[in-house]
Design goal:
By secondary structure, the chain is α+β, with helices and mostly antiparallel strands. It contains 9 helices and 18 strands. The chain folds into 2 domains: about 100 residues, Copper amine oxidase-like, N-terminal domain (Copper Amine Oxidase, Chain A, domain 1); about 200 residues, Aminopeptidase (3-Layer(aba) Sandwich). The strands form 4 sheets. A 6-stranded mixed beta sheet has the order 14-11-15-18-16-17, sandwiched between helices. The chain has a 5-stranded antiparallel beta sheet with strand order 1-2-3-10-9. Helix 3 crosses helix 6, helix 4 packs across helix 9 and helix 6 packs across helix 9.
Length: about 325
Amino acid sequence: MKLVLTPFLLAVVVLCSIPVWGKSAPRQVEHIRLSGQVYLRLADWAAGRELDVRWVKRDETVQLNGRSARLMLEVDSREAQFNGVEVWLSFPVVQRGGACYVSRLDAETTLYPLLSPPGNRAGVRIKNVCLDPGHGGKDPGYCVGPNQEKQYALLLAQELRQCLARAGFKVSLTRTSDKFVDLPDRPEVARQQAADLFVSVHFNAAEASRSTVRGAQVFCLTPAGASSTNARGEGGGAGWCPGNRNNERNLFLAYEVQSALTRKLGVEDHGVRRARFAVLQDAVMPAILIEAGFMSHPVEGRKIFTAAYRHELAQAIAEGILAYQRRIEPRQSKQNL
């Protein structure tokens, strides 16, 4: 995605008091305005996070390195990598006058939660998880012959429930049989169950590229003021909704689950993405939607139809949830699946 600037916008480069918060004191950060968005000079922002910045490929790829973080950014692109896992930005990184800039919205809602995961207050634990098997009843989801997405989403959720229960979580489901549940009712079930996390489970499809597209992707809610990265653009608009209260936790939960899926199973990484899915908009707890694989792919689809592979998927997702819990509750003892 390319940004086209008018001469006026090219001239708007101002030193101002946008603070860079971190372990060091607030810094003055150079910023520019592009197409209505505030962009921060990447070198200034990184210095406030104790990150080194260097070009991997001049004018194309820039890398930020810290003690436990490696962030790769592409100029004129929304694609990024954090510690080897693809994470999509809300706006492209841009280069002006030899310097790179990142949108302030991405710095606050994407990069900061990855570098400094939000922690729970003392005594606040993650104990209850609500799983949401996609589709159901009159809504079969994607179909491959007699194989319907709703069936395998429920089977995966049931397998995941067992993994999480063994790890000590209390687990509820929005549906336990082949019945239709309205989308707004699904996060409401989670609220009624006092769930600490909401995890919606789906499988993907790519009809036009059946033989080539496979892998996993995890969605979290799009921040207010940003566009989504899902092709269908569900939800519309760019305003604030209740699920945005948990922007930082949504992003970090999605990252940990995507990381576990790609590293444990070696599946193709389609990244942490943003969408305004109805089940994410109204969730009052951290919430994600998992596309665990492509039923449309001739090889991956056949694996999804097997109990053994769904067990592997469930274990990987559970490991991602446990990794999130350990970072949010650093003093909690490590649990085993």
